Sequence to fold (74 residues):
Amino acid sequence: MKIESNPSPDTLVQITCDREGLKTMISAAIAAIQHTDNWNFGDEYDMDLTPYHDMRDSLIKKYTEVYGDEDFTN
Fold:
């Protein structure tokens, strides 16, 4: 995995990884959603999960664009 800071004005960080690294990032996003959802009790302290969902969806989209399958769960 390679991380570059400030690669362009449009983004803060650019991450380059292989297939397994992308699978790990997708799994981490899913785990973050599940963990946070377990602690959201429907009160004013609940955390917004939208950024996690957006991250997960964009990683899955990139995976299917590059690898052409949906074998990201293993």
Summary: The helical segments are 19-39, 50-67. The chain has a mean pLDDT of 83.
